[in-house]
Amino acid sequence: MVETLIFTVVTVVVVLILFLMAGKKYSSFIEENKADFQFLFMAPASLSLMDKLRLHERMQSRMMQLQQKISILYPSQPVIPYTRMYIAQIISFIFVCFLGGGILGLLGGGDVRLVVLGIIVACLIPFLMVKKLDEKTDKRKKDIIFELPEFASKVALLVNAGETVQNAIIRCSEMKEEDDNPLYLELNDAVTKLKNGESFNHVMEELSKRCGVQELAILTTTILLNYRRGGSELSLALREISGDLWEKRKVISRTRGEEASSKLIFPMVLIFVAVLLVIAYPALMIFG
């Protein structure tokens, strides 16, 4: 009981001190970058702790990796502020786990096991959140690669029919305007910039950077090298790239099929056990 009470009181005191140190210093920053985040009420304390510990300086390489993933996953968001808020959210989760473990421990008559459980969950939070970010980044890249061969084939077909490459890209984007695939979301943004008079070269380079996919970078580079020539040369180059991309699409489809099959194994085992119990229980009752 005493250990649980001490742990809870210390956690509460630390959080209150951090809130007092933060004051209203981070109010405008939180208001500007509050989208997509939870536990915003804990953000001032978390941001204050980040600055006091100078996490950006102490974990510079980790921060750079995190910023790179966030820039790919959320290209429309300012990278550095979003990264700060993302780390603040991780710290906020940790504080909530500490407080939750302590409070549950006190309600459970001072059960230290609940405190330990809260600490274990708090230690796992950073790894789980970073892993989730990795999974989202990987899924986004695969979604883009999955749609690339169809896009490249359509552009090649339109160019071969006499359309300019810029108009071909605009038409392909407009065909999938309502599609929520990240490739077409980025293409819609690129097309808007082209219609507003921005340089084609600049828009294509920006598109490649925002997507962060090597296959798209190769495609945009090929387009930029050949688009002034147009005609059969560009069409042929796009068809060659499209052939390689179709093979990668097959690999992704196969991988996703295997992942879906593996996810079904556990529910099938549960159903088998349930059916076995339903059949076996009456037999056991008869023999019992």
Please describe what this structure looks like.
The protein is mainly α and about 290 residues long. About 85% of the residues lie in helices and about 0% in strands. It is built from 12 helices and no strands. The chain has helices at about 1-20, 25-30, 45-55, 55-60, 60-75, 80-105, 110-160, 165-175, 180-195, 200-210, 215-225, 230-285. α1 (about 1-20) crosses α3 (about 45-55), α5 packs across α6 (about 80-105) and α6 (about 80-105) packs antiparallel against α7 (about 110-160). The longest helix has about 55 residues, at about 230-285. The relative contact order is 0.07.
Annotate the secondary structure layout.
Layout: H1 2-22, H2 27-32, H3 43-53, H4 55-58, H5 60-73, H6 79-107, H7 112-160, H8 165-175, H9 182-195, H10 200-211, H11 214-226, H12 231-287
Structural class: mainly alpha
**What would you call the shape?**
flat
Low-confidence stretches: none
Q: Radius of gyration over alpha carbons?
A: 27 Å
Span from first to last CA? 46 Å
Average predicted confidence as pLDDT = 81
Total number of strands: 0
Order of helices and strands: HHHHHHHHHHHH
> Main beta sheet, described?
none
Strand content: under 5%
Number of helices: 12
Helix content: over 70%
Describe the structure using short key phrases:
288 residues, 12 helices, mainly alpha, flat
